[in-house]
């Protein structure tokens, strides 16, 4: 019996450690092709699965053995405070579902991701010995090298993975190009330190990683990445001066070299012709982000709008001038940097909690590295390792002020914290679980609670993952013109996870497309068409309503609902009234959107309410003077109001913006010049509602989307 118990304890310990090893290896390189979000969504699923498996096996080991060791330190307290900040921010979030789960909001900022990262930190910092910490650092270095090699090959157009979405030079396993640059810049100080202290074959590993890190930095060539390198290498040189007993001073030439190169590129910004074309990334400016932060801080200063909800704040508080840019239809899911984004989403409490955690670990790591003396050879090695971990950790914290993060970068932060805390606080306090003791009762209750909660999360997460697979299959089907298969898979996705407004929003549109398909089908009788269309129309309306009920704070849901009703004008009673109400709700959430105002103008034009049509179209064109759809209907409205000169002016501008349609527009101008109606002698059609751009693509999504087919208004 004792042997069986001992074996079970060993197996549990093995599962605990190797689950962490597998997680450390896979997080930087994992992507999967069967979900619409190929990176962070799958990384989150991996994180939650392996973190809970590791934690469950550790709990089982504790209960069987009747004893456990815990690394008790003050850093844990600050991490718990950060977790509480995210928890409270999620409770008071404007989108609780999105803040908790992430996708289709921002996965890396979700509470679920934070839960997985905290569990990973707890297990790694408490279970790993110094030897196992070293092994995990080496494992992560191998994975980082693979990610960097893959990124370099992508930049040169050498697509070694035969999948459609990977055949893009900007695609990599970390995230955006800037994210890959920050990843390489953050690990650079640690890699240099390990190269100095490593022996035999491992020197080749770290030398290769430095080489490919340098290649990544040159290929990306972003100023904020170079500034991150400057910060990390400067910190490494400063620490090297204080710890001259650990290093041969000649090795300091390496960080000096990287600093000099970084400053060269920052100051002169040269473009190297023989390298692949530089990838451009678009982000919100600091000033625009700051103005949004101020507005949301006035409303929700303590807990913010909720993790992953920056897009809501952007839509509501963006400058009217943004509509005059080429990106006027874009919705930014993140701000200019991780810190500026978090200021709006998790509020002052979340920012202060993060800064306090950062300050605490920097303080205790600095005390360990620069105050305590380590004389033995083993202690010197771990001091060198700790120094590298410390510098890379501080570098990544600094990068949060310069660039946005993702789940790979957040995992890197928690990994550095976990292994550094494991080195700093090497001693574990041991507890015995005696029968009938209060400690045993408390531990058993806590473990049971965590087990039930964790198991529930895994089950719900599995359903959510299955729904996302069905959703991605629907996008593939719709992209290839298989409308029925697309609808079936979307219905499966909505059935498997009925809490995602995105699925119902898309369903409402494809039901409408299917109704148009049935309407044009000459093989069916009129009676069959009528019955089928009635069902599809009803489904479309219900799906749009469910989307707004699930998430009334998303302007895109109201835009699609308005679009559906607008297409059904004349088919159901009060459809134009419902469309107007829907667009007005969208304007409350996105007040500077010329699309909503233009569609209101179109509806009023159809209803022959030309004055209200003019009011809304004027507002739309004030926001975006070159908006073709707005100019077209504005010209028609001026014609109906008898203002021919203004109508000619609008169509003249429209003709210059659309030279391919200038002949047709010229006919309208000729009619107006002759004193006739704008559309006299032309084929007059019912105005077609413009399809809303409701799904701003996240980075690293599979490119399949619902085809942007203009649905014609359905007639009786």
From TrEMBL:
Residues 696-707 have a biased composition (Polar residues). Keywords: Membrane, TPR repeat, Transmembrane, Transmembrane helix. The chain crosses the membrane at residues 12-32, 44-63, 75-94, 106-124, 136-165, 177-198, 210-238, 250-268, 343-365, 380-402, 409-426, 438-460. This is Uncharacterized protein. The keyword Thylakoid does not apply. Residues 680-716 are annotated as: Disordered. It comes from Candidatus Staskawiczbacteria bacterium RIFCSPLOWO2_12_FULL_37_15. The keyword Transmembrane applies. TPR repeats lie at residues 594-627. It holds the Pfam family TPR_11.
